[in-house]
Amino acid sequence: MSTPDGPTDLVGMRERNLALVLAEIDRSQPVTRARLAELTGLTKTTVSAQVAALTGLGIVSADDPVPGGRGRPGAPVSVASGPIAGLGLEINVGYLSACVVDLTRQVRIRRTVARAEAGDRPQDAVAALANLARLVTRQARRAGLVLAGTTVAVPGVIDGKLVNAPNLRWDALPAADFLSDAIPSRPLPITVDNEANLAALAELWFGAGPGLGDYVHVSSETGIGAGIVVSGALFRGAHGAAGELGHVIVAPDGPPCRCGGRGCLEQVAGLDALLSVAGIRVPAGANSDAATLGTAVPDRPPGAGAAELVRRLEAGDRRALDAARQAGRGLGVALVAVANLFDPASIVLGGLHAQIAPWTTPHIAAALEAGGGRLRGRSPVLRTSEVADGAVLGAAGEVVARILADPLAVARQERAR
Amino acid sequence: MSTPDGPTDLVGMRERNLALVLAEIDRSQPVTRARLAELTGLTKTTVSAQVAALTGLGIVSADDPVPGGRGRPGAPVSVASGPIAGLGLEINVGYLSACVVDLTRQVRIRRTVARAEAGDRPQDAVAALANLARLVTRQARRAGLVLAGTTVAVPGVIDGKLVNAPNLRWDALPAADFLSDAIPSRPLPITVDNEANLAALAELWFGAGPGLGDYVHVSSETGIGAGIVVSGALFRGAHGAAGELGHVIVAPDGPPCRCGGRGCLEQVAGLDALLSVAGIRVPAGANSDAATLGTAVPDRPPGAGAAELVRRLEAGDRRALDAARQAGRGLGVALVAVANLFDPASIVLGGLHAQIAPWTTPHIAAALEAGGGRLRGRSPVLRTSEVADGAVLGAAGEVVARILADPLAVARQERAR
């Protein structure tokens, strides 16, 4: 039974119509006011008033502005490409990353720096992230952009307002307070989310887009995670831990896992397992981006281990091919569970598994076709992500999504200060 | 980004408020109008008007009616226990079932008849179901009930309006037309849904209720399925096939399955696998309710095979215990995938697996604790269903849910005739 959360009132109605008009502009831009009225079912008068309000907020712009005015009524309108923008930050074991995305989802600034390996105190990591945020904020200001809020991607589970990120040695930290004390975010408050979730959303905003339908996005750097997107929104689970694909059991008698189980997907298809089967040894630290320690790099290079694996796969190295086959079969078993339980329209391979997809997808596709494919009739479409650095892009995109979903929030928050 | 599907208008607002008031009565009954105003945030005048409208529709009744009136304004109101009711039907391999549930979700009539084993033409099965529906409708009329609609549970996948039920030899049938021609349903149109989905919803309406949080309900008679309930509604997947738990792979090198895969859960924890490991032979047909062929039975007995298995488990028979251990371990692997991917608050074992739960849950609980439990922090609560015949109950409950979600639909449909 579906009922609204609260009573419907006129103010709420106006705000919803504003968001409705903006969502339609975002979807159909450039679009005229007359067409917006058709698409939304609102009157032309209402649409014109909403467009004027959105233009006043700096969120929408007329494509053919009349000097001193807000464009001819017949001219199409679009989401404004500036000055409002969102800041995405990512904190990971080996690196820190930042990017700025404007309301049209153009990436305006990207910056990644290496950091020392885990062992840092949480506050050291946050201080380093705050430095990066300040740097990028200055750069954005020079580019004429106004940052309206910040989202931080972390490799951990967010349950309510607590963050558990074992790889960062963060244990039940009150994320919002902890981060908002160190990192500026205004007028919108800072938010924090799981990197796999944000990388999954990045696919929607910066990758294949709504054509994916409901999808499961596989994230993989060192570990393996997944983000599940249903009707354009994340499926988070009862405790915020949905999508832990790396700990689906694919070999019940397989090797023990750090999670306490045996034969988890991570143990047969994670980076360490791949390198071990392929016989690739990587100097300590070089496996992650800590290889670039202390240097600012324009774009995060793949880890040395993954790069070497891809080189050997391209050269047809037998052990590397064995590793890919084992990983592909393991992914096949886990993704059959995903297909049978979630029945998504698409499955998108990201990160490391996008890089080695040419060698694993035949095994995955065969598993999906055999494993219940005959019963279901339709198997999910298997795709490879073309989005690099999805987590930090998704973080910035999340700020943009917050603004577009509630365009008055920016003004409300500024008034409240 | 979340936006409403269409423009908000005043008529829609009134209808939503009506549904809002009714949902609150359903949740908090008996409840006074004054309390309803507090709970909904609507004015007392609005609430009184909505309660009067709902009383006029026969959906709500005042607990202390004034002769000729609609109850004192201070008297509490409740959902009416009559005359409006919903008809649930279930068509399965071995039996047909019907039940009538009133708007307070009291079961008023239940009736199950055996039918010949599969091989019937679809229209024969539907004709037999139509006979049962007529019988029960007459019985309901004699009890002073007015049926407002029908929902049919089938063991198959519903994709759009097509039903695929391989066990019934139904292949891409246009369910609504097919069923609505034979089976009366008015004023609300007939609907059809998967038995595992409806059994899962029955848990919400006739079992442990909203306290379950988001949950996954395991259905098992001959095969194994699951229904996934998120925020009180079914999670259906992109093609209506979500919850195919029976085809999650739990033994990658295990026996082949009818789905085309190997080592599916059904192959190690389905009824046939359990009976085979336990060394139980059942005469042909006696394994399902076809054992009671041609006789009307007041309540569907468990299949002979399942009953024998439980007897032997209770007697401590070694082979039966081996079968339960194998099934428990297999369920453990599959439910670890459920816990890691969906992160539900509860997992409910139903059907056959509710009956043998005392012997399988130790294995399942151990698997859930080991398999990622340490990472997640919280494992789903494992429960055993106390609802028998969940699919047909869920079907009738679904009619009630349709009425409560859109109380004007009954009147609208009647006017349209």
From TrEMBL, chains A, B:
Any Pfam family matching the protein: ROK
InterPro entries listed in its UniProt record: ATPase_NBD (IPR043129), ROK (IPR000600), WH-like_DNA-bd_sf (IPR036388), WH_DNA-bd_sf (IPR036390)
CDD domains reported for this sequence: ASKHA_ATPase_ROK_BsXylR-like
Stored PANTHER family: BIFUNCTIONAL UDP-N-ACETYLGLUCOSAMINE 2-EPIMERASE_N-ACETYLMANNOSAMINE KINASE, ROK (REPRESSOR, ORF, KINASE) FAMILY
Record-stated family: Belongs to the ROK (NagC/XylR) family.
Protein name as it appears in the record: ROK family transcriptional regulator
Organism: Streptodolium elevatio
